[in-house]
Amino acid sequence: MEKFVQLVVDGLSTGSVYAALALAIVLVHSATGLINFAQGGLAVLAAYVAWVLTNQGLPVGLAIVAAILVSFVLGAVVERYLIRRFERGDPDTAVVVTIGLLTLVTGVAGWIWGYNNQQFPSLFPLDTVSLLGVSVSIRSLGTTAVIVVAMVLLQVLFVRTKIGLALRAVAINPQSAAFSGLPVGRLLMVGWGLAAALGAVAGTLVAPQLTLTPGMLDNALVYALAAVILGGLTSPVGVVVAAWIIGVLENLAAVYVGFIGFDLKVAVPFILIFVVLLVRPQGLFGRKTVVRV
After folding, report:
1. In whole angstroms, what is the distance from residue 269 CA to residue 242 CA?
2. Does the pLDDT at position 170 exceed 90?
3. Membrane spanning segments where (predicted)?
4. What DSSP character marks residue 121?
5. Which site in 40, 255, 257, 289 is 20 to 30 Å from 191, CA atoms measured?
6. How many CB atoms lie within 10 A of CB 250?
7. If you write DSSP's letter for every residue of 49-76 in order, what string do you get?
8. Is the pLDDT of residue 291 over 70?
9. How far is Cα 215 from Cα 67, in angstroms, rounded to an integer?
10. Residue ranges of domains in the chain
């Protein structure tokens, strides 16, 4: 029983990292209607900014806040001067642009800071506490708590605030939103800025666990996209729950399912995707899209 609880808790912690990136992807999609594959690269860049600031003597908490602010500005600038040129065209072209941006940002980070593993200070203590007879790290609990707070704030943003409703209106129909008097350009910049800031949270949370490298979030981005598909592109709560399910199930499958083991546990989210898409194509918590013809 203790081993099972340990695997579940570790899976929730790992799933929280996937959830942070998945939330950022949902945020961009809710604001622009695009899938942003560059989210992992922007998150890594933010982690490097925080790392540089900590090396200059800034406390880790303040360094992370500064990196979040820098990421917000960077995300807004990327949308204004790069993505906007493709948003009105073929959506597939814009997706390819975000993939190219991911490659560019990762390469720039490697060119500036190198590809050696760097130690990033943890925001939370490395001590452990006893939970149901299992030792759980405070860092894992802190990471999960941060993601829960981000999920709640994002849900409130899109459902309860004027700016969130405006972002959704722009994503659904920018022309109608413009005719209604909404500042479409500014809202798109805000959406990308918020997503980049949320990605910065993910990057700074995972860097202490994986060590800081330009490609540290490549695998996590794949899991985050799986969580987005499972949870539904329209549901912040759904993608977080899906990310936790993926994190827990891959841990349990690696230990309790002999033919999977640790080598094949990466297949777990893709099996889940296959099953969910057959039964519920819009995701576990997503909404069906009705198109009038």
Report:
1. 9
2. no
3. 6-27, 34-54, 60-82, 94-116, 136-158, 190-208, 220-247, 253-279
4. -
5. 289
6. 23
7. HHHHHHHTT--HHHHHHHHHHHHHHHHH
8. no
9. 18
10. 2-279
Say what the pTM is.
0.84
Q: Of 14, 15, 39, whose CA–CA distance to 25 is shortest?
A: 39
User: Following DSSP, what letter does each residue of 224-262 receive, concatenated?
Assistant: HHHHHHHH-TT-HHHHHHHHHHHHHHHHHHHHH-TTTTT
Answer whether 236's CB lies under 8 Å from 23's CB: yes
Of 11, 57, 67, 111, nearest to 200 by C-alpha is 67
CATH class of 2-279: mainly alpha
Q: Mind listing the pLDDT tens digit for each residue in 27-54?
A: 777 777 778 888 888 889 999 999 999 9
* Angstrom distance (rounded) from CA 123 to CA 64: 9
19 neighbors 244 (Cβ within 8 angstroms): yes
